[in-house]
Design goal:
This protein is of the alpha+beta class. 45% of the residues lie in helices and 13% in strands. It is built from five helices and six strands, in the order H-E-E-H-H-H-H-E-E-E-E. Strands 1-2 form a two-stranded antiparallel sheet. The protein starts with a helix and ends with a strand.
């Protein structure tokens, strides 16, 4: 009786390991591929295409998805390195395009922001501006009155324990 129980557990282990290796789309053949996007196993190109249609999967790994250190391997390191290289390439391409279009390698500030920056610098304050289109830049109404020589600051007060945010347009 003990022998028969041992065979049953061995057979169930083999069946479960075999089911892990089967194509999850057709469930007939042994899987050869694993989708980088969702880790579904497949056996052939038709099964991969059927999987993408059925699940609306792109087949691409989410580069921003958190991976625990215990699961981090050389392939993920290379993938992350390649993503950083792609970001660098796109940024350099955008800078070259900006230079072609405007003749300036960096974006140009409007006159009112240039005067605000120089007035703040003369008072010992260094200002950095967000790119146009960013929501915080749109909310910022800090300005410099050239006639009165006055800087009006927009200050955002954040009170974290109470989750209160107050914006003061000096």
């Amino acid at each position: 009786m003990g022998e028969q129980e041992g065979k049953e557990t061995t057979n169930s282990k083999e069946a479960s390991s075999l089911s892990l290796l089967l194509c999850e789309e057709c469930k007939l053949k042994e899987s050869k591929y694993k989708c980088p996007g969702c880790s579904i196993r497949s056996c052939s190109l038709p099964c991969v295409k059927a999987h993408k249609i059925r699940t609306s999967c792109t087949g691409k790994r989410d580069h921003t998805h958190f991976v625990p250190l215990s699961q981090f391997d050389d392939n993920l390191l290379i993938s992350d390195y390649n993503m950083l290289e792609d970001v660098k390439r796109v940024a350099e391409s955008a800078q070259r395009m900006r230079f072609k279009l405007t003749g300036f390698p960096n974006f140009r500030l409007p006159w009112h922001l240039k005067s605000l920056r120089s007035a703040a610098a003369s008072r010992g304050t260094r200002i950095q501006f967000l790119s146009s289109g960013m929501s915080k830049r749109e909310k910022n109404k800090s300005s410099y009155d050239n006639r009165k020589k006055i800087i009006s600051w927009t200050i955002e007060w954040r009170f974290h324990p109470a989750d209160v945010v107050l914006i003061d347009h000096g």
